[in-house]
Amino acid sequence: MSGLTEAYAVCSEIARREAKNFYYSFRVLPEHKRNAMCAVYAFMRRADDIADDESQTVEQRRETMAAWLAEWRLARAGAPTDNPVFIAVADVQQRFKIPDQLLEELVQGTSMDLEPVSAEPRDGHAVQLADGTMGYRSFEDLYRYCYLVASVVGLVCIRIFGYSDPAAELLAEKTGIAFQLTNILRDIKEDAERGRIYLPQQLLEEFGITSAEIRALAGGAPLRTNDRAMIDALSVQAWEYYAAADKLLPLIDRDSRPALWVLVRIYSELLHKIEHAHGDVFSKRARVSTPGKLWILAQGAAKSVLRR
């Protein structure tokens, strides 16, 4: 038991140090659910860190990811392990009935940017555009990416939160899409600087914008009317998906509703800030300040007390 307690403590420290928006929502969960969320986050964080480690080549990152994944699968099958994250996640899976497939998809999502990219379109995959930038052809292709990197996280979370109505699963999927579209809007500049444009090409074409112009905006070019209109159009789609969160909230266990409320409030506030900046995500990165997050957390904590 002490080994498991220590494993959870390691995961909690990783979440406290790295989770930023997520950690605020963890704080208003009952301890056993908070520990579980920290373990899942630590697992996801390690996969993300491998995928994003630009000190390694893409091929080296693929090899590191494959080795880490193989180690986890062996641990999952019962092989001895001293990896505290694997120890804690195994307990979470057993306690909250989280299927292997969801965690496999979670890793698949973090690994998507490591996949070889070609100019030939494949459903749900990124393609290499004419200027060498990585992008997605359609919103449907982007949706698949968002599902794997965000909706799967939501589907894991609701199993920890607790629910009985199967309708919660589709609502959690859509809520994850809302969060990821918010991330994409917030990070347009940083992603473009890394040679990645997650805005669907069909959306750019609708507003007469090229990937080269997005990279120019990232480099300091002034925003034009059609640039702002394009960003606003994707914001509108994101708000449509946020509507799912309102329907999801009453379907999860009462002791977990404040945590979801906090998370939705923080992410939706990010989207509000993008709108208030009239789509200017290039001159200043949208963020919710620490005092702002603490105020949202305080409101969530009050809701948590009322639900005891």
Distinct helical segment count: 14
Structural class: mainly alpha
Largest sheet: 3 strands, mixed
Question: How many structural domains does the protein architecture include?
Answer: 2
CATH architecture tag of the largest domain: Orthogonal Bundle
- State the strand order across the main sheet: 1-2-3
Residues in helices, as a percent range: 55-70%
Radius of gyration: 20 Å
Oligomerization status of the protein chains: single chain
Strand fraction: under 5%
Element pattern in H and E: HHHHHHEEHHHEHHHHH
Number of DSSP E strands? 3
Shape: globular
Describe the structure using short key phrases.
single chain, 308 residues, mainly alpha, Farnesyl Diphosphate Synthase, 2 domains, 3-stranded mixed β-sheet, 69% helix
Description:
Helix content is 69%, strand content 2%. The protein folds into 2 domains: 1-99, Orthogonal Bundle (Farnesyl Diphosphate Synthase); 116-308, Farnesyl Diphosphate Synthase. The radius of gyration is 20 Å and the shape is globular. The protein has 308 residues and is mainly alpha-helical. 42% of the residues are buried.
Short description, anyone?
The protein is mainly α.
Topology diagram in text:
Elements: H1 2-18, H2 21-26, H3 31-52, H4 58-76, H5 84-96, H6 100-111, E1 127-128, E2 134-135, H7 139-161, H8 167-186, H9 188-193, E3 196-197, H10 201-206, H11 211-218, H12 225-248, H13 257-276, H14 290-306
Parallel strand pairs: 2-3
Antiparallel strand pairs: 1-2
